[in-house]
C-alpha cells in the first residue's frame, strides 16, 4: 500500500494510538477521516491537526460498531477509502465478575467494528485491485493480548484473540486477491486506557496493567504508529511494536503447558 495520496480512515482517533496514526498518515501525505465516539476529545484533536494539514483532515463523531456508523465514516471521506485503521478499542470487564454488558461492549468494539468495516470495504477493494497494487489495506489494531493473553481481563483477552483471528482470516481469504491486511499487536502503550487501568479500584484491572507494564516498556503511541506503517509499506501482516512479543509467542507455540505455568508464576508474583 502506498501511503502518500491514500484516502484513510482511523477509528478511535480522539487520542492515543488513533490520534498518532492520523498524524503520521497526514505527515506522509494521506487524507484522513478521524472517527471516535467521544465528540469532545475528537474535536480538540481535529482542531489541532487542521491547523497543520487543513482540508486533508475530516472527522465523524459516531459509533463504528454498526454498518450504519461505518457507512457514515466512509461517506465523510473526500474519495473512496483505500486504507482503514480499525483502532477503536475498550478495556472493560475484569475477572469472572465481568458483566454481560462488559462482554457485549468488548465484543462490539474490539471485534464487530472490524467486521462491519471489512464488510463495507472489501468488495470494492477486490474490484479496484490491480496486478501491481492492492485495492485497499485493512489495519487491525489488536494487541499482544491477542497472541498471548491478558491477565485480569477475560473480556479483553478473548476479544483481542478474536480480532487477531479475524485479521488472519481476512488475509488468508483475500490477501492474494488485492486486499492487504496488517495486524498490530503492541503490549503497553502510554494511553488513557493504560492510565485508567493503573488507577482503577478493581484489583483485577490493576493486576492487568501491572502485568502489561512489567512485561515490557510502555511505548509512546507514535512509536506504535511508526512500526505499523512500516509494516504496511513493507507488506507484512504482523506488526510488533514490542519485538519481544515474537519470542513470547514462539515459546507459547512450542510448549503451551510450559507457557501457562510461566504465566501462573507471573500472576502469583504480581499478586504478592
Describe the protein.
- It comes from Aeromicrobium halocynthiae.
- It holds the Pfam family adh_short.
- With 272 residues, the chain is α/β, with parallel strands linked by helices.
- It has one domain: NAD(P)-binding Rossmann-like Domain (Rossmann fold).
- The chain contains ten helices and seven strands.
- Strands 3-2-1-4-5-6-7 form a seven-stranded parallel β-sheet, sandwiched between helices.
- Helix 1 crosses helix 8 and helix 6 packs across helix 7.
- The protein starts with 6 loop residues before the first strand and ends with a helix.
- The mean pLDDT is 95.
What would the keywords be for this entry?
single chain, 272 residues, alpha/beta, Rossmann fold, seven-stranded parallel β-sheet, 55% helix, NAD(P)-bd_dom_sf, SDR family NAD(P)-dependent oxidoreductase, oxidoreductase
Amino acid at each position: 500500500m502506498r501511503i502518500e495520496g491514500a484516502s484513510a480512515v482511523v477509528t478511535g482517533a480522539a487520542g492515543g494510538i488513533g490520534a498518532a496514526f492520523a498524524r503520521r498518515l497526514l505527515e506522509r501525505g494521506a487524507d484522513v477521516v478521524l472517527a471516535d465516539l467521544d465528540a469532545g476529545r475528537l474535536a480538540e484533536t481535529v482542531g489541532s491537526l487542521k491547523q497543520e494539514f487543513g482540508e486533508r483532515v475530516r472527522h465523524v463523531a459516531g459509533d463504528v460498531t454498526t454498518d450504519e456508523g461505518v457507512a457514515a465514516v466512509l461517506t465523510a471521506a473526500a474519495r473512496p477509502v483505500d486504507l482503514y485503521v480499525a483502532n477503536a478499542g475498550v478495556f472493560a470487564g475484569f475477572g469472572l465478575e465481568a458483566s454481560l454488558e462488559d462482554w457485549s461492549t468488548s465484543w462490539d468494539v474490539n471485534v464487530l467494528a472490524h467486521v462491519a468495516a471489512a464488510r463495507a470495504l472489501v468488495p470494492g477493494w477486490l474490484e479496484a485491485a490491480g496486478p501491481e497494487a492492492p485495492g485497499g489495506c485493512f489495519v487491525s489494531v489488536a494487541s499482544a493480548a491477542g497472541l498471548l493473553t491478558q491477565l485480569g481481563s477475560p473480556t479483553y483477552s478473548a476479544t483481542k484473540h478474536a480480532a487477531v483471528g479475524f485479521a488472519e482470516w481476512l488475509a488468508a481469504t483475500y490477501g492474494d486477491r488485492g486486499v492487504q491486511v496488517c495486524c498490530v499487536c503492541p503490549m503497553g502503550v502510554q494511553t488513557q486506557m493504560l492510565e485508567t487501568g493503573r488507577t482503577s479500584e478493581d484489583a483485577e484491572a490493576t493486576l492487568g496493567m501491572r502485568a502489561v507494564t512489567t512485561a515490557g516498556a510502555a511505548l509512546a503511541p507514535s512509536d506504535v504508529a511508526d512500526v505499523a506503517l512500516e509494516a504496511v509499506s513493507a507488506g507484512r501482516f504482523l506488526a510488533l511494536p514490542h519485538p519481544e512479543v515474537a519470542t513470547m509467542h514462539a515459546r507459547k507455540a512450542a510448549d503451551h503447558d510450559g507457557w501457562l505455568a510461566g504465566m501462573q508464576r507471573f500472576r502469583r508474583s504480581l499478586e504478592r
